């Protein structure tokens, strides 16, 4: 056997390891085939028909409601509405003011504008879209600010929603702000970032972000009952003031769960969904932040979050979407613990698998190395020694 063939035998196990080892990349959960799409409404089904326990879900709801006085809760699994409950006085058609959840919608509409060719790259300079304006506090750091920095809340400026609200021109207010750090250097949650994205979408497409969302997302998904306010210049508010029902909110989560596809239509590029929902900033408390989405590696999922306890969790591994409307005590509810103790045990025959530690991730690599790669190398050395 030639030396070249020996090296081939050595490399094959390494290639297999790189392909199948957990350290090769982010785990992707393929979408199962869907037997229908909820464009005209969600189909209801008993929890047991989709592998969940009704009794356990009752306990899950009771625990969450006790901890947060929830206003409503919708649970979707495998594309079916399994559980729905509301506070007295509201129901499935009630429009919830989504606050910061609107930021995730803004990122989604940006993905549409990019897919349609209106915006070529998130690495484009923000100021390039406002060359018709003059602004205060010129700064090389402001010149370096890109759409990506707006998406990741690392613009380098800090806006104030109250002050911006009193301004006659919100976009001008944002462009006038002084830079206090390098773009991309520090994450800071800031409503000004998604509002500039909304203005960029309008400048690029010639229509408001709301109109683009209606045409390319809401109408194809069967979302017709909604409200989304605008600033004094008609720019859709990128950071809030969107109102939807929990059922329609779950539809948007379901779109992301299905990697941007809706029936035969690819409403969002799958690559954009991936970029939005992976952590571009990771924090010590276990959270991460993507493109206007929160990332929850502890539960292998991601979420939209808004003031008032509004949450939408997407759990790809379990094929789950949960839309939650909270109330007064929402800040005291530890969702991770409640999920672990009550939600995941409701999945019959399935439990949550937390993200493995680094040691657990490299263990399969070491096993394959010991069982395949090393014996091949030792065998090659033995053959070479015999020939000499």
Strand and helix map with partners:
Elements (H helix, E strand, L loop, with lengths): L2 H18 L22 E2 L9 H15 L3 E6 L2 E7 L9 E2 L3 H15 L24 H4 L3 H5 L9 H6 L3 H7 L15 H14 L3 H13 L5 E2 L13 E3 L1 H12 L3 E2 L2 E2 L3 H7 L4 E2 L5 E2 L4 E3 L4 E6 L3 E6 L4 E6 L9 H9 L14 H30 L1
Parallel strand pairs: 1-3
Antiparallel strand pairs: 2-3, 2-14, 4-6, 5-6, 7-8, 9-10, 10-11, 11-12, 12-13, 13-14
Helix pairs in contact: 1-13, 2-12, 3-8, 3-9
Short description:
With 388 residues, the protein is α+β, with helices and mostly antiparallel strands. The protein has helices spanning 3-20, 54-68, 101-115, 140-143, 147-151, 161-166, 170-176, 192-205, 209-221, 246-257, 270-276, 335-343, 358-387, and strands at residues 43-44, 72-77, 80-86, 96-97, 227-228, 242-244, 261-262, 265-266, 281-282, 288-289, 294-296, 301-306, 310-315, 320-325.
Structural account:
- It is a single chain.
- This protein is an alpha+beta fold and 388 residues long.
- 40% of the residues lie in helices and 13% in strands.
- The protein has helices spanning 3-20, 54-68, 101-115, 140-143, 147-151, 161-166, 170-176, 192-205, 209-221, 246-257, 270-276, 335-343, 358-387, and strands at residues 43-44, 72-77, 80-86, 96-97, 227-228, 242-244, 261-262, 265-266, 281-282, 288-289, 294-296, 301-306, 310-315, 320-325.
- It has a nine-stranded mixed sheet. A three-stranded antiparallel sheet has the order 4-6-5.
- α1 runs antiparallel to α13 (358-387) and α3 (101-115) packs parallel to α8.
- The longest helix is centred in the last third of the chain and has 30 residues, at 358-387.
- The chain is globular and about 60 Å long.
